[in-house]
Design goal:
The structure holds 2 protein chains of 2 kinds. Helices cover 40% and strands 17% of the residues of chain A. By secondary structure, chain A is α/β, with parallel strands linked by helices. Classes of the chains: A alpha/beta, B mainly alpha. At the A-B interface, α1, α2, β7 and α7 of A face α1, α3, α4, α9 and α11 of B.
């Protein structure tokens, strides 16, 4: 008898968990009615929004909502197991957003299939592919300019002449930043050496930290933390690091020289403008994630400012100015980077 | 240069092996009593979350660790409720609980810390260096207390399992629960206790990552280390000493591939990344010829 009751209790608990787990999340302001005139944006993220890439996009959308630009709801942690298409179709049918934003790297076909069925909705997806008429736009973090400047900074600050890079895996969006970083490093110090390690994961901080510690043990004294976890190693061993995606100086104020930072706000601003004007077309939005339109930047030096020689700061500043005024273009090189030896 | 390489490699091996030792010893208790606990990945995640959060909120790392242990015990109890009391399929319960603990932890993290753009952090357990100043040894053994505890636990667990009454009882219910029951042992209670101890150890393994290794909590912090433990327990042939060799082997090759990458060796990194897994599989294949699986593993015991 007692056992039967236990069975029932546990079954109910499991069902309850499932129901609660599946309930639509009241994210953002929620609601499907919406205030008149405001652009409705739906975010569809494959990972939890703590993942830095998705976090940067999500953060910009939240800011746009705060500024009264959009009305924003989102679903996260959709994964790569086939749920993306369902989530997108449900959003299209029920929330009827004006714009859908998301990351389609692992869900490329699903996102594009749904977009083709809803031509009246603007789709803007982080993607390695190209835009498709009439409504599928693509974007990505085109951080090679900031990467170049970061490389200059790293090489200038290295005393051992060895700079370490810990990255996820050699895919184009990583490669172009690392390649630019190395070019920048070579410009400041033609004798600079680099180490490149991959952790073969987008998010495994413990592995990234181990990779960084291995590089430090072998002489690297400035690290480019393309992945999360590296700054922690720098802090522990007392070497400098350069952050990624957002300004990460808070993680180790004494050791983070700067960060290769992405600001997605110009992209959503542009999307809202074109969609509300009825002028939206499918396009590659990459310019809005670059210096010229404020979509990327090298984060401030913060507490390390006084440790960086003025001559180096001047060099970096001059290069930044040259990029901004269009007289210097950073190469976009998508091929797998080769360590400088 | 070679010395630096080897010293760094050995130090990294000990660090990488630590959470694996805790996790695999936890699985050892579970499986020797006859229950496969596939909830390990989730329990490690739960331990990482609870340990970090409690440490962050109270300001005490040890209190955080204690809370992680309590969370692990509770997680073990839930597993025992499902698989021992109710006799539910162990694969399903374990995988289900991994999903539950992971999602619950992420949910709790969001409730407590919101959506920070920069992850909250704590200062980690400090390293201690018993051989300070001694060349090589000083660097290799500059480790956290938890790492030493992990290695010290191996002989302790071996002694408990093989030399104590309690360990004999665990083995009895894991090999032949009917006979154990006939001999007057309470199979349910012993299996539940094993789950609780196992859960606590797994949780400490997770807490090591968040409280000692990183000082931060995030999704992806366990990244499959729990599943590695599931393989290591087979490699270890369900013996405590085997846990030592298995963890050192996997940890060693994991550290080796990172160290080799840092040297700029001209080998595809993909090949290097697979090294620890290939070696573990190879070792499994060789060692797997005469495994002594606990006879009652996966078999729920229901008293007539």
């Amino acid at each position: 008898m007692a056992k039967k009751l236990l069975y029932i209790a546990v079954s109910m608990l499991i069902v309850l968990t499932m129901v609660v787990g599946c309930a639509p999340k009241a994210a953002g302001t929620g609601g499907t009615t919406g205030e008149a005139g405001k652009i409705k944006v739906f975010g569809a993220f494959a990972t939890p929004i703590e993942e830095p890439w998705d976090g940067a996009v999500h953060g910009a959308l939240l800011k746009a909502q705060e500024n009264g630009l959009i009305e924003y709801t989102y679903t996260e942690n959709i994964g790569y197991a086939g749920d993306m298409e369902r989530v997108l179709r449900e959003a299209c049918e029920q929330e009827k957003p004006d714009i859908i934003v998301g990351d389609s790297y692992g869900n490329e076909e699903a996102a594009r299939r749904v977009a083709a069925d809803y031509p009246e909705i603007a789709f803007a997806f982080g993607s390695g592919g190209g835009p498709v008429d009439p409504n599928f736009s693509v974007f990505d973090n085109w951080l090679q300019e900031a990467g170049y400047l970061a490389g200059m900074l790293a090489a200038g600050m290295s005393e051992s002449g060895i700079v370490g890079i810990v990255a996820a895996q050699p895919v184009p969006e990583v490669n172009r930043i690392v390649n630019a970083f190395q070019e920048g490093a070579l410009e400041v110090n033609p004798d600079i050496k680099t180490k490149i390690s991959y952790i073969n994961s987008w998010f495994d901080p413990a592995a990234a930290k181990e990779a960084a510690l291995a590089q430090i043990a072998q002489g690297a004294d400035v690290l480019y933390a393309e992945r999360y976890g590296v700054i922690d190693a720098a802090k522990e061993k007392g070497v400098y690091a350069i952050g990624m995606m957002v300004d990460q100086y808070e993680q180790a104020p004494e050791y983070v020289l700067s960060s290769v930072a992405w600001d997605w706000y110009p992209t959503i601003e542009y999307l809202v403008k074109t969609v509300s004007a009825g002028a939206y077309t499918a396009q590659d939005l990459k310019d809005f994630s670059m210096f010229a339109k404020g979509g990327a930047f090298l984060a401030p030096y913060h507490d390390t400012e006084s440790k960086i020689p003025t001559s180096l700061k001047d060099l970096v500043e001059a290069k930044e100015e040259a990029i901004r005024n269009g007289s210097f273009r950073v190469n976009i090189n998508d091929t797998a980077p080769v360590p400088i030896e | 240069m070679e010395n630096i390489f080897i010293v760094g490699l050995l130090a990294a091996t000990l660090r990488v092996a630590t959470p694996l030792i805790f996790g695999t010893l936890g699985e050892l208790f579970s499986e020797r009593s006859g229950v496969l606990n596939l909830g390990i990945e989730g329990i490690m995640f739960l331990g990482a979350f609870v340990g970090f959060t409690a440490a962050k909120l109270t300001g005490s790392l040890w209190l955080g660790l204690l809370m992680a242990i309590i969370a692990g015990v509770i997680a073990g109890l839930v597993m025992a409720l499902l698989t021992v009391r109710l006799g539910v399929n162990q694969h399903v319960s374990g995988l289900g609980l991994t999903l539950l603990w992971t999602a619950l932890s992420l949910f709790g993290f969001r409730m407590i810390f919101g959506e920070p753009s920069v992850m909250p952090s704590i200062s980690t357990f400090p390293t201690i260096s018993p051989f300070e100043g001694v060349p090589y040894l000083g660097t290799i053994f500059e480790q956290r207390l938890l790492t030493y505890i992990a290695f010290a636990l191996i002989p302790l667990v071996g002694w408990i399992i093989n030399r104590t009454r309690f360990g004999l009882n665990i083995r009895a219910v894991g090999e032949n629960p009917e006979a154990a029951d006939a001999a007057g042992l309470n199979v349910y209670r012993i299996r539940t206790q094993s789950q609780m101890i196992g859960g606590a150890l797994m949780a400490v393994g997770g807490a090591f990552l968040s409280q000692a290794m990183l000082g931060a909590m995030s999704f992806g912090i366990i990244s499959g280390r729990g599943w590695v433990c599931i393989a290591l327990i087979i490699f270890a042939n369900w013996k405590a000493i085997g846990v030592l060799w298995g963890s050192l082997l996997f940890g060693g090759f994991f550290a080796l591939q990172l160290a080799l990458q840092a040297t700029g060796i001209k080998l595809p990194y993909e090949l290097l990344m697979t090294l620890p897994y290939i070696v573990t599989i190879l070792a499994l294949t060789i060692a797997g010829r005469n495994v002594s699986v606990p006879s009652a593993l996966l078999k729920p015991y229901q008293r007539e």
